[in-house]
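[09:14] KT: can someone run the structure on this one? pasting the chain below
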Amino acid sequence: LHDALPIYHTPPKSEDSSNKRTLRSLRHPAPFVAPVVITFIICSALIVFIWNISINQVECFTQYGLCSDKYSEIARQLIGQKVVRPSWSPVVIKLSAFPEVQKVETSRRLPSTAVLTIFLRSPLGSVSSDISGNPGAIVDGNGKVMKNTTDPAFPLLIVADFTSTTTNIAPNQVSALKVLRQLDSLLTARSIGNLEGLVLTVTSPGNPD
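[09:31] RB: done, structure tokens below
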């Protein structure tokens, strides 16, 4: 029975046919390779093109409108610079150094306009070590010192450990100042608070009983 069954032999693959398939794959690469290469070339050329275009116009804004001259003068230093992203420029570092500036966002409107948006901190109130307000400062809602001066338009918190070199006040002092800010909206005169430990004593000179 074994001798009666036909026997089939698979002819060995020739080395020549294998080489032909390799050559065909080299001549005809996978269909997705060409678009990737073309896209890479176009993006590289675009980056080189943008890199060599100098900024000739700067637009500067805050969340409230156009920038003041103090910020605009610094922002205009971008003019003539060749930067793909204005955020890489030292100009942004200078603007961010102002204590009242929370952050600076940048973008570029092709071909040659840089747009800067400056987000300013919102003042919460004044802090000082004595009733005279000197030394004193205006702080924001996070306790960050914005300006080394007090303003009678804001409530005043008196704390013994505040100095002219203070850059941030403690969380409990921020909480106390928020209380004063709420009282300020109910009173006709400026509210003044004296914080000793966790005890806040509030007065409002000139406010009728």
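[09:33] KT: thanks! The chain has a mean pLDDT of 81.
[09:34] RB: yep, looked fine to me
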